[in-house]
Design goal:
This protein is α/β, with parallel strands linked by helices. Strands 3-2-1-4-5-6 form a six-stranded parallel sheet, with helices on both faces. Helix 5 links the parallel strand 5 and strand 6. Helix 2 packs across helix 4 and helix 4 packs parallel to helix 5. The longest helix has 21 residues.
């Protein structure tokens, strides 16, 4: 049976993805630090939950043991909070994503889906906006996600990882 890890799996997107993967026969493990939400939306689901932070190498290493892929949703997602606390936003989003990518590289977990945001691209970009537009984020949150996209791209090419 295939096993996946969903970081930030207790949030809105993760808690709605989990039943879809369970219905497809996957075993699901969730890594969440419960900073913005509790586990109420997944408590009745047959999932393994690890409480921890994606910046913690030991927790990330433990979380990815035995998984075939990772869906990376964990992030500090508030634009307002990113403006108020840009260092915290960078630390959580960029350092957390880098830590996850590096541990996946070390353990040969090559299938990763990263959830970004339109704010990484749109910001002040000239419409119409598409993937070829010059990214011009206007918040620290958008900038952090753009930085994460760049790391995903570089890990994909440098280490032959399948990162979407």
């Amino acid at each position: 049976m295939k096993k996946i890890l969903i970081t930030g799996g207790c949030g809105f997107v993760g808690s709605n993805l989990i039943p879809l993967f369970l219905d497809k026969g996957y075993k699901v493990r969730v890594l969440d630090n419960f900073s913005n939400i509790d586990s109420q939306y997944i408590d009745k689901l047959d999932v393994e939950v690890i409480e921890g932070d994606i910046r913690d190498k030991a927790i990330v290493k433990e979380s990815i043991i035995g998984v075939e892929g990772v869906i990376h949703l964990a992030a500090s997602g508030s634009v307002v909070e990113s403006v108020k606390y840009p260092v915290d936003n960078f630390d959580n989003n960029v350092i957390g994503t880098f830590t996850l990518l590096d541990e996946c590289r070390k353990q040969k977990i090559n299938n990763i889906i990263f959830a970004s945001t339109g704010g990484a691209l749109i910001g002040n970009a000239e419409p119409p906006v598409n993937e070829k537009s010059l990214p011009l984020p206007i918040s620290p949150y958008g900038s952090s996600k753009l930085c994460c996209e760049a790391y995903c791209s570089s890990f994909s090419h440098s280490y032959d990882m399948n990162i979407t």
